[in-house]
Amino acid sequence: MPAEVNITELLVGYGRGDKEALDQLMPIVYDELRRQAARYLRREQAGHTLQTTALIHEAYVRLVDQRNVHWQNRAHFFGIAAQLMRRILVDHARTKKRVKRGGSDVRVSLGDATVAVKGQDLDVVALDEALDRLARIDEQQSRVVELRFFSGLTVEETAEVMGISKATVKRDWSMAKAWLHRELSNERD
Description:
- This protein is mainly α.
- The chain has helices spanning 2-15, 19-41, 52-64, 74-100, 124-137, 139-150, 155-162, 166-188; strands spanning 107-109, 121-123.
- It is built from eight helices and two strands.
- A two-stranded antiparallel sheet has the order 1-2.
- The radius of gyration is 17 Å and the shape is globular.
């Protein structure tokens, strides 16, 4: 796909300090980040205070400020974007909890991802902590959830970012959802 080749070439150029490559890269990756953020935030509970534009801007600023990263390709870039979006959302949730001094947790609906029981909302901070525990057991499963849930990547996109098969992504996604459901249910009880 030509757009993917251009992104990879532009990322490599940007990594070498080419200002023109960054100028060309900005609108391309911004549109992709907007798509990922919108996909994620569509699944959120109504009234969530973090808007798509704020999430995109924060992720974008952090991404283009990555000076020591040797960008390998488009998949590498958007994999790092998923990690940054996770950090931003978790930081936002923790800040909101601090401001409210123990007020209600920031919750998001997993929508079609359904790690929790359908119709329930999930505490982003609890999910982040559970993903950290899962990473100690199975780092790949944790990464699949991070890419699928926090960045909103499809099975195909997740497979590309991780360099694994779609079947492996599906299997890890299914196993991770079951594990997270059990973990998060135990925390609520």
